[in-house]
Write a structure and sequence with these properties.
398 residues; Aconitase, domain 4; 3 domains; eight-stranded mixed β-sheet; seven-stranded parallel β-sheet; extended
């Protein structure tokens, strides 16, 4: 039996945007999404990058065919959606990908997804309270995922030990990094807020700025155009940073998968008049940028939008686990997370600070003098002088 049109029923109504399994770890833009849409996807353990992309796109709801929190580990995407107030329905079943037509109007009400031409599909509503409970349970089930981290780390070390330890294969950019601080901007969570937090550091230290994929766009948007742009191989031209951002950079580094190709990304960049430096590696683009800064002599590396905790590294069950783990071990004390930088960097003492301290000191000295008998005599004499001056001015005007 056909259901009534969704807009005649109670609940949240919006246009369905069905992406299925197409949302990958590098697809953080959810192209084609519009504010108020309902994102329909199939992603076990919804990762934070996908959730943040949905929030940035302004979706009204997320419907997941699979379990957004499977219990293997405390994935971060569901919590992000709950904090943003996005309606979240998971465990709807893979049939939702066929039952809901892309662009059709759907309705979510009381844990059910209603679409024209289909029976209601029931799922699990994930609100803030249920997310906290499920994440707590998942933290007790992380042992298997930690074993996965160990396996990924060993495999990456076997394949990329020369790059990791000696920088073998890294390109030589024209931008000088030796002895200079470097800020690497990834396409991660809260990168805009983190960039604003390090604005004083950037203004005073004038570091080299490396933008990774869409992180290059974010850096440009906040007034920190990157000197170096690191790009992966996108599916189409829309996956590249805008031409203006790429052309403004001194160097463009293209990360190609080892044993694979970057497709026709070279040709796309050539159409923009750019000749990229090439790096073939199994490392993620973010880790490639960190290693580039490290092996080219950076005095310090500030990571913006990077995964800093164990839970963040495990989030999404991504193939770059070993890459991120070992890269951070290699860089060691050079790497500072942008979120921690304001707490350890107070900034330089400027002229205005010195002048302010002097003025406060002079005012304190004046106040101390005025409470003494001599100071009071000076004050009375000063008042008489000012009164005589005012009287003289008035008489001259007449």
């Amino acid at each position: 039996m056909r259901t009534r049109r969704p807009d005649t029923q109670p609940g949240l109504t919006g246009r369905a945007r069905v992406v299925g399994r197409a949302v990958g770890r590098r697809d953080t833009t959810l192209r084609g999404m519009r504010r108020g849409d309902v994102l329909v996807l199939d992603r076990t353990d919804l990762d934070r990058a996908t959730a943040q992309a949905a929030i940035d796109a302004g979706v009204a709801a997320v419907v997941n065919a699979s379990s957004s929190i499977s219990g293997r580990f405390p994935t971060l995407g569901a919590g992000l959606l709950a904090d943003a107030g996005v309606v979240h329905l998971d465990r709807v079943g893979v049939r939702v990908l066929d039952a809901v037509r892309d662009g059709a109007e759907v309705r979510i009400h009381e844990g059910r997804l209603h679409a024209e031409g289909s029976d209601p599909l029931e799922g699990r509503v994930l609100d803030a309270a249920s997310v906290v409970e499920l994440q707590g349970e998942a933290r007790t089930s992380m042992s298997a995922h930690l074993e996965s981290l160990t396996l990924h780390t060993g495999e990456f070390l076997r394949r990329e030990h020369r790059l990791l330890l000696h920088g073998a294969g890294l390109p030589d950019p024209s931008t000088t990094m030796a002895g200079r601080p470097v800020v690497v901007v990834g396409a991660g969570h809260e990168h805009r807020a983190e960039l604003r937090a390090v604005r004083a550091f950037v203004r005073e230290q004038r570091p080299v700025v490396i933008g990774v994929d869409t992180g290059a766009v974010v850096a440009s948007d906040v007034g920190m155009p990157p000197d170096v742009v690191v790009v992966s191989a996108p599916d189409d031209d829309r996956g590249l940073p805008p031409a203006a951002v790429l052309r403004r950079a001194s160097d463009v580094v293209l990360v190609e998968p080892r044993g694979g190709t970057a497709g026709d990304t070279d040709a796309r960049l050539a159409r923009l008049g750019l000749t990229p430096l090439t790096l073939r590696t199994a490392a993620t683009p973010e880790d490639a940028a960190l290693l580039l800064a490290h092996h080219r002599g950076a005095s310090a590396v500030v990571g913006v939008g990077m995964r800093a905790t164990l839970e963040e590294l495990l989030d999404g069950d991504r193939p770059g686990l070993g890459s991120s783990h070992l890269t951070r071990l290699e860089i060691g004390p050079k790497l500072v997370d942008a979120a921690a930088l304001p707490g350890v960097y107070a900034g330089r003492v400027g002229l205005r600070h010195v002048v302010g301290v002097l003025l406060v000191g002079l005012l304190a000295l004046l106040a101390a003098v005025l409470v003494t008998p001599v100071g009071q005599e000076w004050a009375a004499a000063g008042v008489d002088v000012v009164a005589d001056l005012v009287r003289t001015v008035r008489e001259s005007i007449r």
